Amino acid sequence: MATEHLPPLDLAFWRIESASHPMHLGALGVFEAAGPDAAARAAELIAERCADVPRLRRRIHDVLLPVGAAAWSPARDFDPARHVSLVRHAHADPHAAAGPLMARPLERGRPPWEAHVLAGPDPGTFAVLFKFHHALSDGLGVLALAAGLFDEGQPVRGSARPPGRTERRRGDGPPTGSGSALRRLPGTLAARAQDVGQALEIGAAVARSGLPFGVPDGLSAGGGAAAGTRELAGVALDLDDVNRIRKAVGGTVNDVLIALVAGALRRWLVGRGEPVDGGSGPRALIPVSRRRTRGGSDGGNRLSGYLLRLPVAEEEPLRRLDAVRADMDRNKEAGPARGAGAVALLADHVHPLGHRLGGPLLAQAARLLFDILVTSVPLPGLGFSLGGSAVREIYPLAPLAQGHALAVAVSSYRGTVHFGLVADGAAVPDLDELALALRTELEELVREVS
Questions:
Q1: In 3D, which of 230, 148, 254 has the Cα closest to residue 397?
Q2: In degrees rounded to 5, what are phi and psi of residue 92?
Q3: In what order do the strands lie in the sheet containing 58-62?
Q4: What parts of the chain have a pLDDT lower than 50?
Q5: pLDDT per residue over 87-122, tens digit each?
Q6: CA distance 6 to 312
Q7: Cα–Cα nearest to 305, from 333, 339, 257, 330
Q8: Could you point out which of 52, 80, 112, 373 has its C-alpha 20 to 30 Å from the C-alpha of 343?
């Protein structure tokens, strides 16, 4: 069997991890319990089914060549009990129980994922916290993996490629085998030259993005404030309200969601007594999927991104939305392969040894490029269940980069928009206030367009 090396971006996520800044993403699903033993049954089912998902039984290990590279290999001693647990807790909100679990890094010698079934004081519900290392895949990819653990093994819509296959991208080089490599040489060299030109253009855009300017303290975990702890919060909003705003002012649902984050940040920062007027606003990195189909279980990261300033200094909600729309339109016109937000594509141009030696430096550089991550993970219209217990809410959870205090992820599921908030516990002890501000901001925008 041929060795499957980690692609450059996956390798970058693997190398930049530290004990206090784990690089796993996740999701917290809240279920309606189908019976008194529903939580225990859910843990049993996940443990049974994970053995049938090949990518969940593989670990990452270093290889000799290329120097600095890493590869996937089967975990011969795979034991579901090391990855699936039943946790009984006394918290009314499962986010409180999930926070310490989200802070804990995945064990690097094992397949990089975990599932924790959280049984709280309400016998009518339970929650499941899924953790997947970012080296395993991006949000859409891990969604396809997680889908295999639910009832019926429900596939993610749009998954067209069989497991284990990865799409061939420009820059991967020509296929081996018969045919004249010489005849392909001019095209190959032209593609390489175009790659170099793209890398230089992205690098110049990163340099033009500038160093942090006037970043609010609430968005920075630098200067010793970071503790490596994690606080989680979630808020569920009506998708009809979001669509009502979009139809009234134009643009996209995503524009409205980003504007909600900008407005909520303004309310939250003002409530903390932090200045928001003046300056150019915090920079938000908006990841963009490069997958050809929606979902896909082949794994790996297929990401680029947009970079925009969140207009927290703007007092009027509709003007904030207009500013977000204009910035997003400019990003889309340039495309996801250009601009400072496309910095993830630079990973393709770094030798594996560079990822290994430069991982710690790259981790620290994240706060120089952006101040907050705002990511959206689209979910299929299908309903999920586990052992007959239906999923009621799904909160996506993003990794928190070094030097950052807050990351925001959002998904829409069955008519509801779920915001998952991940924060450094020491830097942001009042995360629930930000969740409340998201709801207040939506109410204000609905009033503005009514």
A1: 230
A2: -70, -30
A3: 4-5, 70-74, 58-62
A4: 153-200, 211, 213, 223-225, 293-297
A5: 999 999 999 999 999 999 999 999 999 999 999 999
A6: 39
A7: 339
A8: 112
| pLDDT for 169 | 34
Residues of the chain with CATH 3.30.559.30: 213-379+392-449
What is the distance between the alpha carbons of residues 131 and 195, in angstroms, rounded to a whole number? 33
For residue 278, with 0-12 CB atoms within 10 Å meaning exposed, 13-18 middle and 19 or more buried, which class applies? exposed
Closest to 63 in 3D by CA, of 353, 262, 331, 377: 353
Q: Where in the chain is the domain with CATH 3.30.559.10?
A: 4-153
Predicted pLDDT at 356: 64
User: According to the CATH classification, is domain 4-153 in 3.30.70.20?
Assistant: no
Instruction: Give alpha helix (H) positions in 66-180.
Output: 94-103, 139-147
Q: What is the three-class DSSP state of 401?
A: coil
Cβ of 162: how many Cβ atoms within 10 Å? 9
Identity of residue 115:
A
Backbone angles phi, psi at 119, to 5 degrees: -105, 110
Residue 271: what pLDDT?
A: 92
Q: In what order do the strands lie in the sheet with 372-376?
A: 230-238, 416-424, 406-413, 372-376, 283-289, 303-309
213-379+392-449 fold: Chloramphenicol Acetyltransferase (3.30.559)
User: How confident is the model at residue 148, as a pLDDT?
Assistant: 86
SS3 content of the chain, % helix, strand, coil (to 5): 40, 25, 40
| Torsion-angle region of 211 (φ positive above 0: left; ψ -120 to 50: alpha; else: beta) | beta
pTM, whole model, 2 decimals? 0.84
Chain-centroid distance, C-alpha 304:
12
